[in-house]
Write a structure and sequence with these properties.
Helix 13 (519-528) packs antiparallel against helix 14, helix 24 packs antiparallel against helix 25 (709-718) and helix 29 (769-776) runs antiparallel to helix 30. 46% of the residues lie in helices and 19% in strands. It is of the alpha+beta class. A five-stranded antiparallel β-sheet has the order 1-2-29-28-27, with no helix packed on it. It has a four-stranded antiparallel β-sheet with strand order 3-4-5-6, with no helix packed on it.
Length: 839
């Protein structure tokens, strides 16, 4: 245990700091880090080096090389820089490399050197050029701050949603500030800059001078400033070697330190741990590294070679040409377990487990001591927590074995924390491997979340490892394996050295019917890579037509999209394709396409009936569909034409179409309608009133109601209305007029073709029993019973029915008999039935 704490360095009385090696770097750097533009992403992210940047001593003909490495020094990408001079490099939160050029253009590259996009920081930046730039991170995303040659600042808080802000001018600023940085306060990005002994804070509306509380006199300039990883704290390095540490709001001083070194440091970054009360800053010079905080002494390290500092959530990564190290505050659980002569419960439990492995009785003594103090649960928790903060797998196993040993003596210790820690450490050890090169700590891993870690593995194209982690953690398929396989498929379609058939088959064999995987998304990526045929093959595996059709339309495969839409049975989808085809093809080709798809043609006709009548007529003409064309002209004659001449002309066109269709009945009916329209117009002119658009029957009825009986009869003869129908029309009209005298004359004009029972019915309907009796006597014997029942004469109806000896009539009369008034009649019928049965 003494050896284990050999690299612990105390800072004051309450904190220890340790530095351990993450990787032995195996990259082949031909130049020193000081001669390169360097950018390293947090959370164990990649390192970007722009070799041979534009310097005066270099010849202009030599182009620089941009190289990207993993944190372990494994090469990820290398490309010759062919664009303009670069001022600064930085990584976004999505691990995209932002390259800020001197002309204000920002080029964005992927982890593997693939160009993503570019954007400009504005015309003012282009005109005045870029002196310096910073890439910073906020809760909204990754931002860029620019210092121009006119000593003005421009920034965007989120490069994903670019909104440029020109910061206020600093009064009297004639040269570049000695140092500056970005602050994020109240969800707004600010600029803090130093001009001589003065500090200025720039926000979106004003430039204000600020003074750090507790700053000693004699400071003539600020040489360096650093903001913490969480933007809560600020450190200032002055020309006197004094280091001020306080809140980022510059309202509270936390501590100070005088390092007595006046040379400006190369870098200064914060080194703090979440939920820790300790505050420390790491300052780096050419060959010296110093950790200072709220203590009279500092921790100093000798740097054997040029190094670069990367601030992290819980420490600082330090890499050079040969090594990559991590410097951080020793966590409380680890400190209590491993510090010399510790009697903490976790330390005693670790010793008890070691003695148990040696089969020593001291294990029982240590265990009893913990149990007597009632601290066994705390001891197990300490060992579990300390295991998470250890980088070496052997120490992790030792602490977890101790925790497992202690759990055996507890009745109700929840196993979740132990199980989850074992899972988390297995994942962390896998990604920390040299060939993976993501040296996450436990705190960083929890802050980053497993989903983001999987995204970063996918970004590095480490699909097998990502899938193994998903399966090991038993993540839901949609969030885990399915999502990763979809990313793999999107990468697979970019491999242009493999045939479309092989790629499509390989993707389908790997994905199959995996839930959560959209073949249309993969096909869209293939189309974006210029592989249209591959996209079509992949869409064959997409079960949802609603996802197939939009992409096929985008690829200008409209006819195939129409077939897929028809197969789906989704009429809305078919209409979408039809409207797209209509805009894409000329009218002739569009109609020919429809003729090959009967369902689509039918749906389009339905659409045209409501929206485009002229197009519907063209369709019928092209198909020589005279029957439908005739029907179209009939509808058009009433819908579009108000003048009688236009309506008759449209009907004539319809009649001609029906003749061509060999539909004699429809043609004759149309001609009759034309004659009726002309006659109705003439009647309106001669008699007045409203006749147009009435049916033939209604026209006759209207004439009778108007007292024009002869005209009605003439109309009936002209249109060959049968006598029975005419008698019914006249009977109904005269009854409605209650012209009983004319009705009687009409009934006697000749023998009624409809009989006289309808006269009785109509009269009774008008509640005129007197008139009904006139016609009841004229009703034939076969309808006599019905007529008498209509009059309400049940007794006489019974006599007639008995006389006729008709069982149906007897039953009809009996159904009209009521018990109170027609009892005798009912008995009479029953006796007649009985006598008939005897005979």
């Amino acid at each position: 245990m003494d050896c284990y704490t050999a690299n612990w360095n105390p800072l004051g009385d309450s904190a220890f700091y340790r530095k351990y090696e993450l990787y032995s770097m195996d990259w082949d750097l031909k130049e020193e880090l000081r001669d390169c533009l360097v950018a390293a992403a947090p959370y164990g992210g990649p390192i970007a080096l722009l070799r041979n940047p534009w310097r005066k001593e270099k010849t202009a003909s030599v182009r620089p090389i941009l190289e990207i490495y993993s944190a372990s020094g494994m090469p990820l990408a290398s490309l010759l820089w062919k664009s303009g001079p670069v001022v600064s490099l930085g990584w976004s939160a999505e691990e995209e490399l932002l390259c800020v050029q001197e002309d204000g253009a920002v080029l964005v590259y992927g982890l593997h050197g693939d160009f993503r996009r570019h954007f400009s920081m504005g015309n003012e930046v282009l005109q005045n050029r870029v002196l310096d730039a910073r890439i910073f991170h906020t809760e909204f995303g990754s931002g860029v701050a620019i210092l121009t040659g006119a000593h003005r600042f421009t920034l965007s808080a989120n490069v994903g949603d670019l909104k440029l802000r020109r910061m206020p001018e600093v009064p009297g600023l004639q040269s570049a500030p000695s140092c500056w940085t970005t602050l994020c306060q109240d969800r707004v990005a600010h600029i803090l800059l130093a001009v001589g002994p003065d500090l200025y804070l720039l926000d979106h509306g004003a430039c204000s001078a600020v003074t750090p509380p507790g700053l000693p006199p004699g400071v003539s300039s600020f040489l360096q400033m650093a903001v913490s990883f969480t933007y809560r704290h600020l450190a200032l390095f002055t020309d006197t070697g004094y280091i001020w540490m306080g809140t980022a709001s510059l309202k509270e001083k936390l501590c100070e330190f005088n390092c007595n070194i006046r040379a400006p440091p190369k870098q200064m970054v914060w080194c703090s741990r979440p939920r820790s009360k300790e505050r420390a800053v790491v300052v780096a010079w050419e060959r010296r590294l110093m950790v200072v905080g709220d203590a009279p002494e500092s921790i100093q390290f000798v740097l054997d070679e040029d190094s670069y500092l990367v601030p992290e959530l819980d420490g600082v990564r330090i890499f050079s040409r040969s090594t990559h190290e991590f410097l951080h505050e020793v966590p409380v659980a680890s400190e209590e377990i491993f510090k010399i002569a510790s009697m903490a419960p976790g330390a005693l439990l670790l010793e008890a487990q070691k003695e148990y492995e040696k089969e020593s009785q001291k294990a029982d003594e240590y265990l009893r001591e913990i149990q007597e103090l009632g601290q066994l649960t705390q001891a197990v928790q300490q060992c579990i927590e300390a295991a998470g903060h250890e980088h070496r797998p052997d120490m992790q196993k030792s602490l977890l074995r101790a925790a497992s040993f202690g759990k055996c003596f507890l009745d109700r210790f929840p196993p979740d924390s132990f199980v989850h820690m074992c899972q988390d450490l297995r994942v962390l050890n896998a990604v920390r491997d040299y060939h993976i090169g993501i040296p996450l700590t436990y705190s960083q891993y929890k802050q980053l979340t497993i989903q983001v870690l999987l995204d970063r593995l996918v970004l590095r194209r480490l699909y097998p490892l990502a899938i193994q982690i998903c399966e090991y953690l038993r993540l839901p398929e949609v969030q885990g394996v399915s999502r990763i396989l979809a990313h793999w498929a999107c990468y697979k379609v970019q491999q242009k050295d493999v045939s479309d058939e092989d790629v499509a088959r390989a993707i389908n064999q790997k994905l199959g019917d995996t839930p959560g995987v959209s073949y249309s998304d993969i096909a869209a990526r293939a189309y974006g890579c210029g592989r249209t045929e591959l996209a079509i093959k992949l869409l064959e595996y997409e079960p949802r037509s609603g996802e197939q059709v939009p992409l096929l339309l985008k690829m200008k495969r409209s006819k195939l999209a129409l077939s897929k839409a028809i197969e789906s049975g989704d009429t809305d989808l078919v209409f979408t394709v039809l409207l797209h085809l209509k805009n894409e093809l000329n009218r002739g080709d569009f109609f020919m396409t429809l003729r090959n798809q009967p369902m689509a043609l039918s749906l389009y006709r339905q659409f045209c009936k409501h929206q485009e009548l002229e197009t519907l007529k063209d369709l019928y003409n092209q198909d020589d569909n005279h029957q439908e064309l005739g029907s179209f002209h009939i509808r058009a004659s009433y819908a579009a034409e108000e003048r009688i001449e236009g309506r008759v002309a449209a009907l004539q066109t319809a009649a001609d179409a029906f003749y061509k269709a060999k539909n004699e009945f429809a043609a004759k009916a149309t001609e009759d309608q034309m004659r009726l329209l002309r006659l109705q117009r003439r009647l309106e002119d001669e008699l007045g009133g409203q006749f147009l658009d009435l049916s033939l029957h209604d026209t006759v009825t209207t004439l009778i109601l108007g007292g024009h009986n002869k005209r009605a009869e003439q109309l009936a003869r002209d249109f060959r209305i049968p006598d029975k129908r005419l008698w019914w029309l006249k009977l109904t009209a005269l009854a409605d007029l209650e012209d009983w005298e004319e009705l009687e004359k009409f009934s006697k004009s000749k023998k009624s073709p409809i009989g006289y029972l309808p006269f009785v019915e109509i009269c009774m309907k008008q509640h005129n029993k007197y008139e009904a009796k006139k016609y009841a006597s004229r009703v034939g014997p076969e309808q006599k019973v019905k007529a008498l029942l209509l009059l309400g004469d049940v007794a006489q109806a019974a006599d007639v029915a008995i006389e006729h000896r008709n069982e149906a009539e007897l039953s009809l009369v009996l159904s009209h008999c009521t018990g109170a008034t027609d009892g005798a009649t009912a008995d009479k019928i029953q006796r007649a039935r009985a006598q008939a049965q005897k005979k």
